[in-house]
Amino acid sequence: MEGSTIPTKLKKHVAVLAFPFGSHPLSLLDLVKKLAMAVPDIQFSFFNLANSNNYLFSASEANNLPSNIKPYSVGDGVPVNHVFSGHPIERLDLFIKATPENYKKGLELAVAEMGQINCLITDAFLAFAGAMANDFNVSWIPVWMPVPHSLSVHIYTDTLRQYYFTSGDGKNGNDRTKESKTLENIPGLAEIRVEDLPDEINEETLLSCMLGQMGHVLPQATALAMNFYQELYPKMLGYDLKSKIPIMLNVGFVTLTMPPPPLPLSNTDATGCLSWLDTQKTMSVAYISFGTVAGIPPNEIKELANALEESKIPFLWSIRDNLRENLPNGFLEMTNWHGKVVSWAPQTQVLAHSSVGVYVTHCGANSVYESMANGVPVICRPVFADHMINARIVEEIWETGVRVDGGVFTKNGVIKNLKFILEHEDGKGLRRKVKDLQELILKAAAPTGNAAQDFKILVEMLSSN
Prior knowledge:
This protein is of the alpha/beta class. It has helices at about 25-40, 50-60, 90-100, 100-115, 130-135, 150-155, 155-165, 175-180, 205-210, 215, 235-245, 275-280, 300-310, 330-335, 345-350, 365-375, 385-395, 410-425, 425-445, 450-465; strands at about 10-15, 40-50, 70-75, 120-125, 140-145, 225, 250, 285-290, 315-320, 340, 355-360, 380, 400-405.
């Protein structure tokens, strides 16, 4: 992955700092790849954990990785010979404790190799990056990956704690009426409820402290790039965020190419998913995937499997190998005539296939965006972080899907949801809604659309630094 033959001293140098957890690094790299192709005379240094970089760049090499992107690894903060306790956020805490010094060390190496940086692009989660940009005397362009509603939640953390999390109220209290209260005093969040808020809002953790700085640091940014479309904002939310962050660039869904490219020949898909989908009826298949991080409890996996077996609805299930042991005995044999189970699926291509009629998902932001871009309604089983907010938006604001009853999979609940979307007239209404949104974002992503124009402004900012 060598740079071009142009001497580095003649090139502008942009440092990109990833938040190395979940889908964040992949999303940021997708944006950087688009920028690198738009401005081939700028060198991009991409800072991330070594294991994440190894995965991202080995996979990206097959996808024509631009030569002006170079990965750099940063320390993960894990002490030598450290024994993990098994707590899910321990690795995250150790990493945050190591920041920003681990990034500074990586930057020193990149500057020595590529020259002084002209701009800092970072995941917006890395709130310290504003001060770092000041130290380098360069512009700072953070990128917000989740839905804008989540950004507003973190900007208003203090207000939310004051109104909803005092005297035992809210998510950690026993008063369910308080949990169901809507956030009517936060501009643009009237449909979001207290129970939808991520745990970070009412917990003092290293991550919550970092995210709680959003309202203080983002107004200092040169511009804020949003993984979103201007056309999808509630008006009040858009107005409020723009009043706090003057230059907000909605560059569209950064992980996707719009319009989606034509599907490849099915026989080139080594997973066999596309070939199998070719044998199914139009809009008949339930595609099921919960990403690489979200964990569905074993009993719920069994309930979901039992629903698929009993309903006889065609399904394609992408399930991680370490979770397969939770499938009921005999499930694969009993369903092999109407279902396919794989360890990994080419998700965007699967969702673009005409046979897929519904997507069962954990409701991560990128999964929601991919379903919308391909016009597929969803069944949401949110797990953590921003999933609950996303599910609320999907069900009550966009009306492009439904949440599972009670927030957990049960056999009867899954069958009801599947039949509602695939067979009932009201379910067809959800499909019409998601198709309308698909058309909306296709127009926004067109060369004359708002997202394309905002991306052009972002490119001009990098070129002028």
